[in-house]
C-alpha cells in the first residue's frame, strides 16, 4: 500500500503544538507514558488470550523493551502486546476521541502549576503525544495480534501524519522517538544515556508487572556467543500489595496510584486490606485528592483492577465497589477466582459479593478515621466527593448509618464550617423534635427563601442542602436517631408548639383562622387550577406569601429530577400560605370583606401567588401575563 498523508484532528493539532513548544522542565514524563501504554497493551493481550484461546498470538514472553541508538539519537519503546489495526491507529492517534478534550486543552494552557500541567497529559489519556516534548519526529510500527499485516505511522508534529501498511511487522507496538539535538549544558535531558533511562523507569515504573528491558546499545550487531551483554531488566516487577507494609514506601504507593488512576497528583489516602481464611485476597485502594472532571458523566470509567494470583483479568471490575464509591481506584488480587471469568459471572459470584461488602466497609471506616483524626484531609475529601458519596444514602441501606457518620452539611449554625447530623442533634433547642433542612441551588438562595424567615428569627438551625442528590436522600433516610428529617418547605410548620411561651397562643390562632376564613376559601377557588389549598402560615415573618408542598408530596425539584431520568410523575398541586401580619394580606382581607371589585382582587391574588413562586426560584405559569399585571399595578401606584 502506498504511503498516505492525513491531517490531524483540530484538537490533536493543538495538543501537538503544546507538546512541541513545551517549556516544562520535567520532560521525563514522556517515558512514563510510553511505558504505561506498553504495559496496558500487554494487559489487553493477556485478557484477549484468556477470552479467546484460538487467538493467533505469542504470549510466551510478554515484555517491554527500550532501545537506545546514541549515534542516530533515537529512543525506541517496544512491546509485544495486543498491537493496533490500521483503523485503530487512525482512531487512537490521528484523533482524540475524548469528550473532555476542550477542557483538557484549556487546563493545560492555563495551568500555573508546572507539575500539574505535565500530569494532565497522562490524566486525559493522551500520553503518546508527550513524545513530541523531546522528539522532532515520532514513528510507530504496530501489528494487532491475530492479523497478518502491520501499520507504520509517522509524524513531525506539523499538522499531518503518514500511514502505510507493512507486510512484515512483529506483534505489538514499537514507538521510535527521533530525539531533538542534545543540549551540552543540560545532561539531565540526555535520553540516550542508559543511567537516565534506569532512573526514570525506577522512579515511575518499578511496579509494572511486566519486565522492562533495556537493550545494550550495540545489541543489533552483537553475537551472544561472544559473551556480549544481554538485555538489562530495569524494574522489580514486585506487586506492591503483596509486599510487607514496611518494605513499601509512600512514593512507591503513589506512583502505582498515578499509573492506574491516570492522575499526576498523590492520592489523599492509601488503604490496604488482606483477607485470610476460606477465601483469600489482597486489596490496595486509593482515595484521590481531586475529583476527575467526568465523575458524573455517563462515560466515566469506574471499577478496580481485578487480579487472580497476580494475573490481571479485568481492568475495570465494577462489581467490587458500589457506584457511589466509583472514585476509588486500586487493585484487588484474589487467590481462588477463575482466570476465565466474565462480568456476568462476577455479578453473581458469592466471593465477589463478599469482597464488595468488605471493601465498602473498609473504605467507609477509613473515612470515619480520617474525619476523627485529620479534619483538613477529611474536608478535602468531602469537598471533592461528598456529593457522590451521598448517593449511597439512597442506594445502600445496609451502610446508610456508616455513610451518615462521615457526612457533613452546611447549616445556618456556621457560615463556613460544615456540621454532622450528630452535632446538629446535640445543638437542638429544648422541645425541638425534628431536624430541619431546606434544599436549593445555592446557600444564598436558600438563606433568602421566605421559608426560612421564622427559623431565622427564632434561631432554629436549618441544614442548607445544595446538591441535587439531597432532594432524594433526605426523603429516603427519613430520620436520624429518632429525629425526623423535615423540609421547612413541606407540610405544616408549627414553631409555636415547639417553643412554649413564644409567638401566638392557641386562642389567637383560632381567632385569626376565623377572621381570614372567607378570604382563604375565596382565594382557593380563584387558584383552584394551580393549588390545592390556601392557609395561614406560621413560617413567614417578612414575606406576604410562600408556596409549600404537602407533607407527602414530591417537591418541584424532585419532580423535575425524575422526569429528567425518564420517569413520568404527576405534577402535585402546591399549598399557598399567607402571612397574616403582612400589610398586603391584611389589605386583601379587608378589601374582600368590603366586597371590593373582585376582578381586581383576583388579579392581586394571581400576582401574590406568582410572587411566592418566584421567591422559591420557580416561574409563574404565564410569565407574560404576570409581567403585564405587575406593570399595570406599578403604573397605578405612581
Tell me what the structure shows.
With 638 residues, the protein is an alpha+beta fold. The chain has four domains: 4-188 and 200-222, Heat Shock Protein 90 (2-Layer Sandwich); 240-377, Ribosomal Protein S5, domain 2, CATH 3.30.230; 408-489, Rossmann fold (3-Layer(aba) Sandwich); 512-637, Heat shock protein 90, C-terminal domain (Four Helix Bundle (Hemerythrin (Met), subunit A)). A nine-stranded mixed β-sheet has the order 1-6-5-4-7-3-2-8-9, with helices on one face. It has a six-stranded mixed β-sheet with strand order 16-15-18-17-20-19. It has a five-stranded mixed β-sheet with strand order 10-11-14-12-13, with helices on both faces. The longest helix has 24 residues, at 350-373.
List the helices and strands and how they pair.
Elements: E1 4-7, H1 10-20, H2 29-51, E2 64-69, E3 74-79, H3 86-94, H4 101-110, H5 114-123, E4 135-143, E5 150-155, E6 160-166, E7 172-179, H6 194-205, E8 212-214, E9 232-233, H7 250-261, E10 269-275, E11 281-287, E12 304-308, E13 311-317, E14 329-334, H8 343-348, H9 350-373, H10 375-389, H11 392-395, H12 400-406, E15 409-411, E16 414-419, H13 421-427, E17 434-439, H14 443-447, H15 453-458, E18 463-465, H16 470-477, E19 479-480, E20 483-487, H17 495-498, H18 506-526, E21 531-536, E22 545-548, H19 556-564, E23 574-578, H20 583-593, H21 598-615, H22 623-637
Parallel strand pairs: 2-8, 12-14, 17-18, 17-20, 21-23
Antiparallel strand pairs: 1-6, 2-3, 3-7, 4-5, 4-7, 5-6, 8-9, 10-11, 11-14, 12-13, 15-16, 15-18, 19-20, 22-23
